[in-house]
Specification:
The chain is of the alpha+beta class. It has helices at 39-45, 93-96, 136-139, 150-154, 159-169, 185-196, 209-217, 230-237, and strands spanning 2-8, 11-16, 28-35, 61-68, 80-83, 86-87, 113-114, 130-133, 141-143, 177-181, 201-206, 221-224.
Length: 240
């Protein structure tokens, strides 16, 4: 199959690589229909990590189930699925406590695993034609059949739940105001999550006009930190 392979800083290529196979009864093989480029992929691409040549990029993936391991019970061939970027077993104590990003099983010697990322375990990424998904009943979310809303569902692989989780970690409660620092994709998803969760006012801080315009388009108050201290600007807007 073809896949995007890291060769070194600022150099990737599309190469022919072995197609993944079922390695464990809990596995599925997914034929990838959509995969995204994440900002954290650029960390490897730009040589800012210890990534070694040969890594297949891609941790934001969705597609159609092509093969099923014998122990998989919740999915079948032909199902449309999206995969969270982190790989987890669903069975260790951290997973059972809802802390699947810190799974202690999938990446021995390190808490947490992910597809196609340096130091995050032996899981090739999905910027490829096919992807092996371990512990598939836990790591693959079944979607409605068809091809509708493909780009929307792809957001469930990383940036939407990441933005939602950031709002959750802040302690936000419905009816409160909130400030989001950074209007990149995750920041905008955090702002959108705050809207869904009932924020009274949402301020989004950045300095790039296009990002601030997008924040305003989804109903937020844009704050350009290049024009002054962000906190002071927000306090002035709120009357102190």
């Amino acid at each position: 199959m073809r896949a995007v392979v890291y060769e070194g800083p600022f150099k990737v290529s599309v190469q022919d690589v072995p197609r993944p196979t079922i390695e464990h009864p809990d596995d599925i093989i997914v034929k990838v229909t959509t995969t995204c480029i994440c900002g954290s992929d650029l960390h490897m691409y730009e040589g800012r990590t210890a990534a070694q040549p040969g890594i297949i990029f891609g941790h934001e993936n969705m597609g159609i189930v092509d093969e099923i391991g014998s122990a998989v019970t919740l999915l079948k061939k032909g199902d449309r699925v999206v995969m969270p970027f982190n790989v987890a077993c669903g069975r260790c104590s951290n997973c059972e406590e809802g802390k699947s990003a810190f799974c202690t099983y999938v990446n021995p010697g390190f808490a947490g695993g992910a597809y196609g990322y340096v130091a995050m375990g032996p899981y090739p990424g999905g910027q490829a034609e096919y992807l092996r998904v371990p512990f598939a009943d836990f790591n693959a979310l079944k979607l409605p059949h068809g091809y509708e809303h493909e780009e929307d569902f792809a957001l469930l692989a990383d940036i939407f739940p990441t933005g939602w989780h950031g709002v959750q970690l802040s302690g936000f409660q419905p009816g409160e105001s909130i400030v989001i620092f950074g209007a990149g994709p995750v920041g905008l998803m955090a702002a959108y999550s705050a809207q869904i969760r009932g924020a009274s006012e949402i301020y989004v801080v950045d300095r790039i006009p296009e990002r601030l315009d997008k924040a305003q388009n989804i109903g937020c108050t844009p704050i350009d930190f290049s024009k002054g201290d962000a906190a002071d600007q927000i306090l002035n807007l709120r009357g102190g």
